[in-house]
Specification:
This protein is of the alpha+beta class. Among the domains are: 110 residues, 2-Layer Sandwich (Uridine Diphospho-n-acetylenolpyruvylglucosamine Reductase, domain 3), CATH 3.30.465.10; 106 residues, Alpha-Beta Plaits (2-Layer Sandwich), CATH 3.30.70; 80 residues, Alpha-Beta Plaits. The chain is built from 15 helices and 16 strands. The strands form 3 sheets. Strands 13-10-12-11-15-16-14 form a 7-stranded antiparallel β-sheet, sandwiched between helices. Strands 5, 6, 7, 8 and 9 form a 5-stranded antiparallel β-sheet that branches. A hairpin with a 5-residue loop joins strand 7 and strand 8. Helix 1 runs antiparallel to helix 3 and helix 13 packs antiparallel against helix 14. It starts with a helix and ends in a 13-residue tail after the last helix. Its cofactor is FAD. Pfam families: FAD-oxidase_C, FAD_binding_4. Keywords: FAD, Flavoprotein, Oxidoreductase. It comes from Mycobacterium rhizamassiliense. Belongs to the FAD-binding oxidoreductase/transferase type 4 family.
């Protein structure tokens, strides 16, 4: 391995071969999937990223790109004694342009840092995740992440208005325009958003920001019946001013209450967190909209910031409690709203048939039908028996095998369930054109 050459580019202190460090960097965020790596390289700027790629390509070394390593589908797990290329040093954030409502950020900047920069200028960044302190905007663009505000602002791709990419041949490409509507040629940023690092390494992004609403109102509502919750979700997702619409399994809320002291503020087998945001008070409007919903009791409503944060804690604490029985088995699924109740019924039955002691917990972004099914107490030796049948069930329900976490390594055998043969062939052709030797993120997306 050309370690000396790599060290001459990034500095000897940014080449790490310590086995313990590499082992820690070669495990998935869920703790279920492990790989192996030969070195960790931490470039300090885009030019260094490009040089590292060129050196690794010429030496026939596979490269796996790592950002905040919050992937839930083994998207950053190396398979071939890879060189791990970390974007963690590419973390600068430029000055916010308050007039054009945009900011430039390095790929390694965390979501929390971008949010702070936006809020300091009186603006809002459109994507929010529970993993905001560790997730990086480069990784989020690579997977086209969604999150808690998708129903209002859309996925990550709708926030990216320009980017810089180090291509697999070791050259740099920058798509940067100061105008909001630039229709000159191919929409290259869209090509790299959602590509999961298979076409190049995103090094910097121009990000869209949004005006900050002056009034918010948040509510958590309880439902005895999932169909009733979905009916309410269908109503709220099309309402002007909707800011968040989150499904929470009552069993999951019970678990956070038991282990974290964050119990549900209302009764119900299913909970729905709703937030409206606008430039005027939305409290009465929320009450009117809820008047026809089939709730099983009075909702808990937060008008002031402290009360809203307490209600949001019910949703955000879910990520903290999922590992209480060991690494959970995660299914990130996108479904038509009309299919969700049937999917949940059949998925629970399937899980019970395969693993007697398993505990299924569901939460997610109900406005888009993006759900996260987490199955607790599944031994590693039972995962295979459950995973394939669950993918089949998702496909039969008309869903996609991935909603916002990407395909990664874990779901690559199931890509054809969501993409037609010609579609996959076209994607492979793009991959071959940009990365003919297939050395970049070789374990991701394609078998």
């Amino acid at each position: 391995m050309p370690l000396e050459t790599l060290a001459s580019v990034v500095g000897a202190s940014h080449i790490i071969t310590d086995p313990d460090v590499l082992a820690g960097r070669s495990v998935d965020h869920t703790g279920r999937y492990r790989g192996r790596a030969s070195a960790l390289v931490r470039p300090g700027d885009a030019e260094q990223v490009a040089q590292v790629l060129r050196i690794c390509r010429d030496a026939r070394l596979n490269v796996t790109v790592q950002g905040g390593r919050t992937s839930l589908v083994a998207g950053t797990v190396p398979e071939h004694d890879d060189v791990l290329l970390s974007t963690e040093r590419l973390n600068t954030i430029g000055d916010v342009d308050s007039v054009e409502r945009r900011v430039e950020a390095g790929a390694g900047a965390t979501l929390a840092a971008v949010q702070h920069a936006a809020s300091s200028a009186g603006l809002v960044f459109g994507v929010d995740l529970a993993a905001r302190d560790t997730a990086t905007v480069g990784g989020m663009a690579s997977t086209n992440a969604g999150g808690l505000r998708t129903v209002r602002y859309g996925n990550m791709g709708e926030q990216v208005i320009g980017l810089q990419v180090a291509l697999p041949d070791g050259t740099l490409m920058r798509r940067h325009s100061l105008v909001r509507s630039d229709n000159t040629g191919y929409d290259l940023p869209a090509l790299f958003v959602g590509a999961e690092g298979t076409l190049g390494v995103i090094t910097a992004l121009d990000l869209r920001l949004h005006p900050s609403p002056s009034h918010r109102v948040t509510a958590v509502c309880g439902f005895a019946d999932l169909e009733a919750l979905i009916e309410a979700g269908r109503t709220f997702r099309d309402v002007d001013g909707i800011a968040a619409l989150e499904l929470i399994d009552g069993r999951a809320a019970a678990l956070t209450g038991e282990h974290l002291g964050v119990g549900a503020p209302v009764e119900g087998d299913w909970l729905l967190l709703i937030e409206l945001a606008a430039d005027h008070d939305q409290t009465e409007r929320l009450a009117d909209l809820l008047d026809g919903a089939r709730l099983c009791g009075e909702p808990a409503v937060g008008v002031d910031t402290a009360a809203q944060q307490r209600l949001w804690r019910v949703r955000e604490s879910l990520a903290e409690v999922l590992g209480v029985y060991g690494p959970p088995l995660k299914f990130d699924v996108s479904l038509p709203l009309s299919a969700i109740a049937g999917f949940v019924r059949d998925a629970v039955a399937l899980i019970g048939d395969q693993v007697d002691d398993a505990l299924p917990l569901l939460f997610g972004h109900i406005g888009e039908g993006n759900l996260h099914l987490n199955v607790l107490r599944v031994p590693l030796d039972r995962e295979k028996a459950l995973y394939g049948p669950m993918m089949d069930l998702i496909a039969r329900c008309g869903g996609n095998v991935s909603s916002e976490h990407g395909v990664g390594t874990r779901k690559r055998p199931y890509l054809e369930m969501s993409r037609e043969t010609g579609d996959i062939a076209a994607m492979r052709a793009v991959k071959a054109a940009l990365d003919p030797t297939g050395y970049l993120n070789a374990a991701v997306l394609f078998d």
